Amino acid sequence: MMMRAMLVAGLLATSVSAAPVLDTPVKDSWWTDGRAALDARLKVVNRPKRAKNVILMVGDGMGISTLTAARIFDGQHPIDGRAPSTGEENNLAWDKMASTALIKTYNTNAQTADSAGTASAMNTGVKTRIGTINMGADQGVEACKTPEKLPRTLAEIAKGQGMGVGVVTTTRITHATPAAVYGHVPFRDWEGADRAYPAADRASGCADLATQLVGFKGGLDVVLGGGRARFLPLGKGGQRDDGRNLVEDWQKAWPQGQFVADSKGLRALNSRNAGPVLGLFTPDHLSFEHDRKDEAEPSLPELARFALAKLDAGKAARGGKGYYLMIEGGRIDHAHHASNPYRALKEAQMFSATVAEVLKSVNLDETLVLVTADHSHVLTIAGYPERGNDILGYIKPPKGGGEGDGGLSPEGYALDDRGQPMTTLTYANGPFVSRGLSRTLPPTDPNYLANKTYGTSGESHGGEDVALFAEGPRADLVRGVMEQNLIFHIMAEALGWR
Ligand SMILES: [Zn+2]
Fold first, then answer.
1. For burial by CB atoms within 10 Å, which of 117, 193, 424, 440 has the most?
2. What is the pLDDT of residue 380?
């Protein structure tokens, strides 16, 4: 009896007493910083579970070695008025996002993926073949005849529910990643009616991607990127051989819609005007940031800012419904294919600036923001450079360590077994010659070509996992090692779709 009474009393005491006070004599900056970091995490896990808006941001080809190299590059060459730093300790926009996961990128028939198969996985929830956009892994050309049997994209479902939909990229708007928002083709090259989509293949009945964009059911609210030539006929600034002018077709379908072709046109637009916006700023891809002329082409952060304002302004007309927006930093991939680390890192830096712009513009209690890459590249960060060594430069080891097989040059560079200085960044394959680039320039030159191993026409994608970063409702679902198609299911869950 006595024992039981004591036990009951003890239980009662536990249940009514306050939580133990967390007290300790040392509350220095480590303590307060740690506590602040905990509070930030508590805010994240206590966020609402439903998103009104979802923003998927894809750094094309932005593998993990690119993330690290771009972080150092951005610290050493800041663009926002900060003083240059050694770089390793720098943070890019996603380095402070709440949740991370590793993503398995392979396509159903390919160990190392391409953008078409990977963007399909993210936009439809099902993986498919390399080079294929938004068709099931077993669906071929004939499936174009039964569109109702094709995987549905997040944008198609969102539009069907009255949400806004937008797509922004630095590539042609018909290139694989942006095309996966709105299109379905068995072969990603079927972007327009031109040589890349031979007339014989057109008998299949699959519409080219530019045609699919213009015919998107319900319409895309904001479309900003490059690739105008896929929309215009031969001889009229375009390359279509079927005589169609898809910009005119789009204008007829959307009389209130506004088409713009340069920065001035975009800057003159009021994002609050009714009707969709189609901005095609270049015949082909937009320029690399390093080569961009601001009067002709807006930067990616500017495009993203306009798209967000446009989708936000349309909310009342949609009865308060949210939006799905895909934003791609599409040319990190292209610079890597050319074995040109400078442009790749500059593109990644601008993509980070775009992510920062998005994170500060949206309410993260109602907007899920996901940042990822579709696949990696064969960029490596090699050797033992000293802290703060120019990420583009030759390897200069710290004093007393990391000397090369060939010793040190008079400038202190580590030398390889042939007596040559080595760069930190190299590619495992790629071209030896590429237009405007050269292997004989100093490695810090923007036009340096960094492949030293063996020659292929283009440097290739890498097959290892990529990172996914998330912030906002259901960001907590982003964790561990994930298949890439799970990204779609997380977006759908955040939107409350079952
Ligand atoms: Zn690529």
1. 117
2. 97
